[in-house]
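Would you mind writing out the residues of a protein together with its fold in token form for me to study?
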Amino acid sequence: MSELLQYLITGVGGGCAFALVGSGLVAIYRVTRVVNFAQGAFAVIAALTASTLLATGLPHGLAEGLAVAVGALTGLLVGLVAIGKPGTPPGAALIATLGLGVFAYAVEVLIWGDQPRSFPGVPGAVEIFGARFQAHYLLIIGATLAVFAGMGLLFTRTDVGRALSACASNPYAAKVVGISVTRMGLVSFAIGGALGGLAGVLVTPIQLVTFDYDVTLIVGGFAAAILGGLVRPALTLAGGLLLGVAQALVAGYGNAAYQMEVALVLMLAVMVWQAARKPIVQEETA
């Protein structure tokens, strides 16, 4: 029983990283209708930046905060390339993010090399009902819940959040009332960069990060986001936790080499299920 609980807790911790990456995808897609394939690169760049800043002697908290800011800035730069020109179709912007994601590999290898990096997180271990795990997992879970609660307040209680929601709901109507859809799209890219960067700095103490770790994060994040149709943050959180737990159980009771396959199978199953439901929904609303 303690072993199962340990897998569940570590799975929830790992799933939080997928949920944060997935929520970044959702924040960008809702406003711009662009699937951002560079989302995983934001996490890797922030993680590697944090490792460098900590190596220079900056204290924890400040180093990770600056790294998340670098992730947000990277997201803004990607947004400027992808949608900075008004009227850019989502398909063209998608290709741009894919190209920038590949280009990020070269930049990361040039700056940080190709060796895996990590840095210490919350020290010590915690034991709950016989299950022992790193205390850092509690930070990951707590930070993720706080971020999702903050996002809820952002979109419901602030003018920027309402403008983002207006662009997501009806961009044409948003333009009529004076909201710049392009500007809000860039804001969504910056938010996506910050969320991806946060995922990167949170997961690095429990997972060695290399320049190509973004593949794992983007696949897991997309699998989480697809559960909510790329538009529902709450379902993205649920999808990330489900995926993290499933992968932890597969690694614990089976073979860790199949963790990526778990994400792909889950994503495929959800897409097939959603495609099967659409005709039914259309018949009911006809």
